[in-house]
Give the backbone structure.
Amino acid sequence: MGAGRLYAAVAAGGFRRYATYRAATAAGVFTNTVFGLILVCTYRALWDERPHLGGYDQGQAVTYVWLGQAFLSTLAIGGGGVEDELMERIRTGDVAIDLYRPADLQAWWLAADIGRAFFQLLGRGVLPFLFGALCFPAYLPADAGTWAAFLIAVVLAMLVGFGIRYLVALSAFWLLDGTGVAQMAWLLGFFCSGMLLPLNVFPGALGEVVRVLPWSSLLQAPADVLLGRADPLPTYLFQAAWAVVLLGAGRLVQSAATRRVVVQGG
Amino acid sequence: MAEGRAERLVAGVRAYRLVAGMWVRSTMAYRASFAMTTFGNFAATFLDFVAIMLMFSRVDALGGWPLPEVAFLYGLSATSFGLADLVIGSMDRLGRRVRDGTLDTLLVRPAPVLAQMAADRFALRRLGRVTQGGLVLGWALARVDIGWTVDRVLLMPVMVVSGCGIFCAVFVAGGAFQFVAQDAAEVQNAFTYGGTTLLQYPPTVFAKELVRGVTFVLPLAFVNWLPASYVLGRPYPLGLPEWTAFTPPLVAVACCALAGLAWRAGLRSYRSTGS
């Protein structure tokens, strides 16, 4: 079996695995919709007070809210990606089995995470977004080209998201219990990805800093492509650069970890 | 009969203390992780508030409420919810226990299941959230302009305790729901975390139907919106009479009673996986 087919099978497995839990998916759709409702009310109050805040009009702000809800589980911004499982495997020592496999550790987990992300996007992301777009005056681009450009940005966001979370998971090689690091990463991601407030609303220097950090590739970058606020090409370059840096760092840390690893358990 | 109930209550509290104590000792085995998760718990909710402050760096009022008054709502909501989350927040693990059959272990122990479940994986790190809520509340109290009277001062602790009671009832009802739903544990988050997020913003921000829903159906408005409107001297958007501001303790007791009934019904309907 060629390497490409192997990882495609792993990705398909990741997709199917998450697709099994239908009740959990329905619950997630419900919860994302409720949170979207709350956020959309506060954003509309904010944009009522200050129209064109951050360059968005009210319709664009509404779209942004529902995009955020669609991406929350897709990009595992609030946790819930494959990193939890990888960390657990490192803690228990099961990672030794993964290292035995004739497959690359990082590529294996990347494939599994991409499969998961695509399922979450379709299963959990689309419905709240449709609900929001139907029930609120949302801005939606009319041309298919913008949607296609948006989807490419989403795929790049998946790579960056995994790059960050893989580094977080590998910290368990040194710390054993990675819960603390995972939580830190989760809340940094939540804040810096623009999940709480669009990054272009952040004032002054803080706004400039958060916009160059890797997390801005997750929600802000695809959102700006969809809302027609950013050119696709420079956005892709920015996202791809972070993906390369983070995945490269992941490789370095991985080789350091596997050289010094003392497998846990008996 | 009454004596039997009192005994059960004492047994429940004792079981809760024992299980919670065990989890605290277990957490302390990884001290670095404990320190980081406690700080993380604090910081996560702190960033929530930072987002509100960032909003107010661009506007002077949200739904007609200035920052100190929104902070007042935020502090009350976060403190009440934080306390409930600390005491009983592990209820969302019930679905998993039903699924993998480990709930049976709790059923054969000579202690109330609710107490064991509430104390399961008791997480002291959740003090981080309570601390953050308390700090915001303190800051708001220093900034906000309130004509303090005896009833307003007395209402403050009553509000926090009743709010904690209402959120506890939501957690228990969510747990009861998981007997039926199992995998759908996340629905609970919409009412717990969603509820506290909702209450952090003024009621004037939300659509009338939503405000009605959280006043008359799921009475979250009694955690802070109604009593805080009275303390701040603001009219409640639904035009309810003033005395309703003093009803949170009654609402909390009623909610807990209903949640208790739901819990019993849920526990009775439980069928083990047999594994």
Q: What stands out?
A: Chain B has a mean pLDDT of 91. Residues 11-268 of chain B form one domain. Strands of chain B lie at 61-62, 65-66.
